[in-house]
Design brief:
alpha+beta, two-stranded antiparallel sheet, 4 helices, 29% helix, 31% strand
Length: 178
C-alpha cells in the first residue's frame, strides 16, 4: 500500500483523538466542545466520487475547537510537530488575536501540540503562546523548542479520553489564581 502524502491530512490523527475525547466528555457531562469547520469554496468537484478536488479558503479561520467546560468557555487549536522545534508561522496572527480576545472575555485559550516523533502531547497555555509569538514578531527566535515548554502540561490518556486535556485546563486555572 502506498504512502498518502498530502498537506490536507496534517493533524488528522490528533484531531481524531480529540474528537473522540470530546465525545466522551460530552457523554459524561464534563464538557461540550465543538470542532469548527474551516470555511471553503469548492472550485473543482470530481463528479464520479462527488469529492472536492480543488477549493480555496473563504476567510481566515480562528481556532479548531470552541466550547464550554463546566461553565468555563474554552477555545483551542490542535497542532502536530514531527520535530522538536515548532515554527511560530504555524500559529497565525489572527489566531493569536482571537485567543487573546477570547481570554479578555474570561475564556481559556490554549494549543494542544502533539510531538509525533516523541509520541507526546502537551497543553500549551495561551500565556506561553503569546510569549513565543511576541518574541517571534519582535526580532527573536521564530520558533519554540521542546525544551521551552512546561513539561507539567504533558497530557496523559484517561479512560475514554485519548487526549485528556481537562487536567491541563485545571493546571492553567490554578496558575492564574496563584
Amino acid at each position: 500500500m502506498g504512502t498518502w502524502k498530502t498537506r490536507g491530512l496534517r493533524g488528522s490523527t490528533l484531531e481524531d483523538m480529540i474528537n473522540m475525547t470530546n465525545e466522551s466528555y460530552r457523554e459524561k457531562g464534563l464538557a461540550l466542545i465543538q470542532k469548527i469547520p474551516t470555511p471553503i469554496t469548492p472550485i473543482n468537484i470530481d463528479q464520479s466520487t462527488r469529492h472536492i478536488t480543488l477549493a480555496y479558503f473563504d476567510k481566515q479561520s480562528t481556532v479548531d475547537y470552541i466550547g464550554m467546560v463546566q461553565g468555563i468557555p474554552v477555545c483551542f487549536d490542535a497542532k502536530e510537530c514531527a520535530v522538536t522545534t515548532f515554527p511560530m508561522m504555524n500559529i497565525h496572527e489572527h489566531q493569536v488575536k482571537f485567543m487573546e480576545d477570547f481570554e479578555s472575555q474570561g475564556g481559556i485559550s490554549f494549543i494542544l501540540l502533539f510531538y509525533t516523533s516523541l509520541n507526546e502531547t502537551y497543553y500549551i497555555p495561551f500565556k506561553d503562546i503569546k510569549r513565543f509569538y511576541d518574541r517571534s514578531i519582535n526580532g527573536g527566535r521564530k520558533s519554540f523548542r521542546y525544551e521551552e515548554i512546561d513539561k507539567n502540561y504533558l497530557i496523559k490518556s484517561a479512560p475514554g479520553a485519548l487526549v485528556h486535556y481537562l487536567e491541563g485546563i485545571q493546571k492553567d486555572l490554578d496558575s492564574r489564581e496563584g
